[in-house]
């Protein structure tokens, strides 16, 4: 039989444990509030910096364009080439800023899996591209009724990046072709975006998804090398993987899988 002192000791221990638990809960809540405030602060700083950088880049690009247009009869070919390099570099930097902002946000995005019409998202990305490039005569081949269980917002970004990437590297083809479809890969369904662009050098096959501007980049194109790293992070968040293969003829195919189940 327990004595009165033993009972009082047990009650005191329970009260002590309860107090510690309440303090831990309060500390955890405060920690979450601090983290949330820190995230909001970082997002605000990122937005402010990117906004200011974009404004400066637009000025550099705009004045360079004005010089090329208004003083074309004064500048020789070398001066014009230098100004065009400045314009290309500022446009590339603007894209790099957008890519880095996307990359920084992806790790904090909540995933909301649902049944998603991938064919519809691919067509929307194509329509956006046609709107921004009205003079383009690219042939788009989009397979119909391809559906997957995934996060629609992330997949929308995946298509924007992959189709835009395919467009850039087919822009010098006499007849560019970009396709979206699905196939089987080792028993799993793999989705793909295929183009007839210039082949990627074999040495880049396993490197192009790393965020380096040296990978999959040419002087002919304004690619930052970060866009495909963003694609890989998005696909990883969706439980899948992404890889690239050279086509038997010309061009490359980007494959990706999804596993949000």
Fill in the keyword field for this structure.
five-stranded mixed β-sheet, 2 domains, two-stranded antiparallel sheet, alpha+beta, Heat Shock Protein 90, 261 residues, 54% helix, single chain
Structure characterization notes:
By secondary structure, this protein is an alpha+beta fold. The protein folds into two domains: 108 residues; 144 residues, 2-Layer Sandwich (Heat Shock Protein 90), CATH 3.30.565. It has a five-stranded mixed sheet with strand order 2-4-5-7-6. A two-stranded antiparallel ribbon has the order 1-3. Helix 1 packs antiparallel against helix 2, helix 2 packs parallel to helix 5 and helix 4 packs antiparallel against helix 5. The longest helix is centred in the first third of the chain and has 67 residues. The radius of gyration is 26 Å and the shape is flat. About 5% of the residues have low confidence.
